[in-house]
Amino acid sequence: YTGKTGSELLTENIKKLKVQDYQQVPVAVNEDASIYDAITTMFLEDVGTLFVVNEHSCLTGVLSRKDLLRASLGQQRLNEIPVHIIMTRMPNITVCRKNDSLLEAALKLINKQIDGLPVVKDTEKGLEIVGRITKTSMTKALVELTEENRFD
Ligand code: ADP
Known about the structure:
- The protein is α+β, with helices and mostly antiparallel strands.
- It has a single domain, classed as CBS-domain, CATH 3.10.580.
- A hairpin with a 5-residue loop joins strand 2 and strand 3 (59-64).
- The strands form two sheets. A four-stranded mixed sheet has the order 1-2-3-4.
- It contains five helices and six strands.
- Keywords: CBS domain, Repeat.
- This is Helix-turn-helix transcriptional regulator.
- Residues 22-81, 87-148 form the CBS domain.
């Protein structure tokens, strides 16, 4: 018997959760893709955050739903404007890595007030995108922490 309270055990278990066990598939578009293409991709792939990559498939930006809505307002030529004009760009992208704790990632989402983070791997050419952590990842983790609450 460890003498630990239920809440101490819960905290320990939460801290053990890793990004790699909750990450989802990332969806990326090229920097030269048009805003129109990005909107189409967001609908077809059913994601709320798109990552933007360069010719080396390395992370250069992020596009949220509101970034695309804002760019669309009163704009006729969505087919002609590349996403790199409107994206949030490196180095201002908040990222996480697969071995990070899920709690750290959750704190980044809260502190930066964003919906998603790219899970990245460091390479010589830049950051390769290997996954995606979102508020949905956090909801799933919460449910999984209590076995009897599995409804799926
Ligand atoms: P929305 O804008 O649809 O509410 P977010 O809250 O995720 O969605 O995004 C808010 C702003 O933060 C957007 O301009 C977006 O480009 C930017 N953003 C989203 N994710 C990240 C991230 N991981 N790092 C830096 N900026 C981000």
